[in-house]
């Protein structure tokens, strides 16, 4: 199997995994704005993948459309045997690689010794990585981690991770305790790159934390020597976060915003109408309806909808009234 991490041109720009947000529908929407080099799924529990009760939940997280390639399945847990078995499933589903979450700061996850709770535990992390490698018949394996649990231990942790057969290490430049608070420590990404270089390893280092868009990511790469950048919340503020158009932010007209929102609703209806509640869709409205006069008032109207029919009829009425305003302006 070709190693996707090796075949991508650097710098590599990646849409971050964001649970309950970056599902197949949202990823396909980002394809219509500007395609990142690589997608990750939301994090998926390996125990759930193997249990009858959990399987219907995790199936949604692993759903993807072939247009989303290259795409990496992100998994979490702490039982190597479950990683072995779930990696076989991931391979059969046609993913391009497996990413192991070693950074999630959710207290329930950390307490169980999973996600960020695995930082520093190189023995169990090694068993997990080897199990994933074997179970998947040597798919590319990567990890997404943080700088430490309570205190920053970048050099020590990265050095240990570099002893594993990993294609890439994505580092969210905060500790587990910091959650998402305070600015990301980008100087630590530089240190991680230096450790990698001094050990002459080929493992790619991807930096993550607070990058809003591509231009900012390019500056971070210049400062740190990282091979790529992962952007998460930046996409909430700008659905064109991965685009570079003459170094200027992409201007999005209100009509284009409505068109994107309508496309998202239609795709959500097609993919999830029978398996996710309508209310789940509302979190996306702010992403499209923002950045213009009257956006917050318009958003309130969208938030008041209860089903697909109401949102389509609201879109129709907004377009009708916007047209009247445009026509009036033309006649003045
Ligand atoms: C709503 C939300 C859900 C997230 N879910 C995941 C996840 O499933 N797996 C993961 O590795 N990180 C997850 N993260 C962390 C992001 O991938 C990323 O590391 C973090 O947001 C910092 O990057 P940013 O500043 O570009 O957003 C999540 C973050 C948010 C805001």
TrEMBL record:
<dbReference type="GO" id="GO:0017150">
    <property type="term" value="F:tRNA dihydrouridine synthase activity"/>
</dbReference>
<comment type="function">
    <text>Catalyzes the synthesis of 5,6-dihydrouridine (D), a modified base found in the D-loop of most tRNAs, via the reduction of the C5-C6 double bond in target uridines.</text>
</comment>
<feature type="domain" description="DUS-like FMN-binding">
    <location>
        <begin position="14"/>
        <end position="310"/>
    </location>
</feature>
<dbReference type="InterPro" id="IPR013785">
    <property type="entry name" value="Aldolase_TIM"/>
</dbReference>
<dbReference type="Pfam" id="PF01207">
    <property type="entry name" value="Dus"/>
</dbReference>
<feature type="binding site">
    <location>
        <position position="172"/>
    </location>
    <ligand>
        <name>FMN</name>
    </ligand>
</feature>
<keyword id="KW-0694">RNA-binding</keyword>
<feature type="binding site">
    <location>
        <position position="144"/>
    </location>
    <ligand>
        <name>FMN</name>
    </ligand>
</feature>
<feature type="binding site">
    <location>
        <position position="74"/>
    </location>
    <ligand>
        <name>FMN</name>
    </ligand>
</feature>
<keyword id="KW-0547">Nucleotide-binding</keyword>
<keyword id="KW-0560">Oxidoreductase</keyword>
<dbReference type="GO" id="GO:0050660">
    <property type="term" value="F:flavin adenine dinucleotide binding"/>
</dbReference>
<keyword id="KW-0521">NADP</keyword>
<comment type="similarity">
    <text>Belongs to the dus family.</text>
</comment>
<feature type="active site" description="Proton donor">
    <location>
        <position position="104"/>
    </location>
</feature>
<dbReference type="GO" id="GO:0000049">
    <property type="term" value="F:tRNA binding"/>
</dbReference>
<dbReference type="InterPro" id="IPR001269">
    <property type="entry name" value="DUS_fam"/>
</dbReference>
<keyword id="KW-0820">tRNA-binding</keyword>
<feature type="binding site">
    <location>
        <begin position="232"/>
        <end position="233"/>
    </location>
    <ligand>
        <name>FMN</name>
    </ligand>
</feature>
<keyword id="KW-0288">FMN</keyword>
<keyword id="KW-0285">Flavoprotein</keyword>
<dbReference type="InterPro" id="IPR024036">
    <property type="entry name" value="tRNA-dHydroUridine_Synthase_C"/>
</dbReference>
<keyword id="KW-0819">tRNA processing</keyword>
<dbReference type="InterPro" id="IPR035587">
    <property type="entry name" value="DUS-like_FMN-bd"/>
</dbReference>
<protein>
    <recommendedName>
        <fullName>tRNA-dihydrouridine synthase</fullName>
        <ecNumber>1.3.1.-</ecNumber>
    </recommendedName>
</protein>
